[in-house]
Amino acid sequence: MLRIFRYLKPYTLSIIAVLGLLFVQAMGELALPNYMSDIVNVGIQQGGIESAVPEAIRATQLEKMVLFMSEEEKTAVQDAYVLLDPELENYAALTNKYPNAEPGAVFVRKPLSEEQINALNPVVGKALLVVYTLEQAASDPAKAAQLGELTGFDLSLLPAGTDIFTLLKQLPPQQLQTMLSGMETQFAGLDNSMITQAAAAAVRAENDALGVNAQRLQTNYILRIGGSMLLVLLVVVVSVIIISLLSSRTGAGFARDLRRGLFAKVESFSKAEFETFSTASLITRSTNDVTQMQMVVTMMMRMLFFAPIMAVGAIIRAFEKSPSMTWIIGLGVVVLLAMILVIFSVSLPKFRIIQNLVDRLNLVTRENLSGLMVIRAFNTQEFELARFDKANTELTNTMRFVSRVMVFVFPFMTLVMSGLSLLVIWVGSHQVAQSSLQVGDMMAFLQYAMQVVFSFLMMSMMFIFLPRAAVSGKRIDEVLRTEPVIRDPQVPKPFDPASRGLVEFRNVSFRYPNAEENVLCNISFTAKPGETTAILGGTGSGKSTLVNLIPRFFDVTEGAVFVDGRDVREVAQTDLRDRIGYIPQRGVLFSGTVESNLRYADENATPEDLYRSIEIAQAADFIAEMEGGLNGLISQGGTNVSGGQKQRLSIARALLKKPPIYIFDDALSALDFKTDAALRRALNRTTDKSSMIIVTQRVSTIRHADQIIVLDEGEMVGKGTHEQLMETCDTYREMVASQLTSEEVLR
Length: 747
What we know:
By secondary structure, the chain is α/β, with parallel strands linked by helices. 62% of the residues lie in helices and 10% in strands. It has a 6-stranded mixed beta sheet with strand order 9-12-13-6-14-15. The chain has a 4-stranded antiparallel beta sheet with strand order 5-4-7-8, with no helix packed on it. A 3-stranded antiparallel beta sheet has the order 1-3-2. Strand 12 (661-665), helix 25 and strand 13 (691-696) form a beta-alpha-beta unit. Helix 5 (114-139) crosses helix 9 (192-209) and helix 14 runs antiparallel to helix 17 (409-433). 35% of the residues are buried.
């Protein structure tokens, strides 16, 4: 099956482009939950405050904060800020943003990298939160009592008007450390995001003191993140559109090239290969099976590549949001894969059966349509209807079974997704209550969990469709890797340009593939240019098989067939068949016009050549009566003309080719005796330089031939003229006696 995918080689650039765009799409979709988390956590809960390290802080507040820092932390924080000074480059912007800020009384944050801010966040956040908590406790007895329970330091016992921070400066270091240790327990286990969320109220209070418009700050943040979210979404949408376009074009082009390859391979088949594959099966492989491959290629480009990227990315993002809840995703994936495995094991055998049943239905349909007149003649409509109904019902029941199995996928998937959502919310809400997870992070984790499950579902669905495509691919590959028995030699020999169609059989024997006995035995004769060689024999005597060896529809088993001195196996098939005008027993016409069917032999034929071939073939009268004449329409298979008319058009087509060899494979059987005689006279006048080989059962058609070959059960029992055979060949005399009267024999 893998060799089929070589037809994707012309679309390598499109596939690479799709892979790149799928990565862009995946990264975009993975970023969206994170943006949503930021809007909830920072934009809504924190009022747009992104960090616990304020951009501006009053000098008095900073002085209080350093009380709760080590010397190393104090130095790092002080190095991160600079006093507001009119000499600063961005002084105007700072005073506009912080209207209440006064030079020398406010510290502003220096330009810091994200890594530096993250490093300072826990230090500044904790200190700022402690200062804010103490300030709140000093003015609120209830909060003072709560703080006393945590630290053992009851602020309500202090005299009115006491500055707690002045008092803290005077406390012995050991007592201060004891109080801070009690407060430190509140920060245990908190990461940067939780510290930022906890310190957001303190930063907001500082911003209020500096005159910052809190509503505008929050609105600006939400609009900025929302705008980024919309921009990412736009990129995702554009990527999806381009991916859909490229994957559809690639799938359609792949199917087109695959059908072309199949058709080209089938055209190279000999009759032996056509006995291996039925016509109905070849049609199904070229249509239904190729469509299956097209669908799976398109789906692979859009889903199979995309799903792993999304699954891995979503798992990583979910782990970053909450490592403690990733077991929920694993549970959901295991349940989903178990369901898919059950469905896969049940439906896979049915997919293999479906394609064979489609073949069977096509075969029955084709036989019924092509044999409709015979069916009506024998009144077997009910039998054929039952036969069709059986094939149709078997296919319907099998597909219905598969559909019933597949119908459980989406309800079960919905159940898994809903259960997963409830579990995430239940576990996440407890973590939110314990201040170990933010609400926005829980919401983002939920979306990442859904993305992981969807990704595994997409991969699982692909593994359901792939087996059916694998069956179709195998059936297509069977045709593509079938090597025709009839092949050109590596170095074909050319014909002599001066040669004119000498055909010679030398001790030729032939048996069909896998047959036990020869159908032709030791046949030798020569058909010369300018002469008529007739092949005569009863039904099944091997007449058609014999002439089919000349254009190499079959190869001889023993002996050799020569055309103009060349073994037909030593020349190119195209060169050989260019020298032959072949008229089959069953005339074959193609849908189109009379002229298009005639020009099938020579597209560049002149009108004079067309009319000449029509006149010789005795087809001028009925063509003139047709609506449109040469432009008259021929339906598919030539069903709108009679058998005799079809044969005459086939003869006219061969005559238009003007080959040195003509083969009439019982091609005059549908003609009446008058037309037959007129046609033979015209042929004798116009093809006198070509070798004429006529296969027939009619003695009257070939009694005046230059040479008559008589076959009986695959053996040549007579060779000569009519008169010679009447004297020497009993089989010929019996055939003559059965077909001609005594007067006709003597005539």
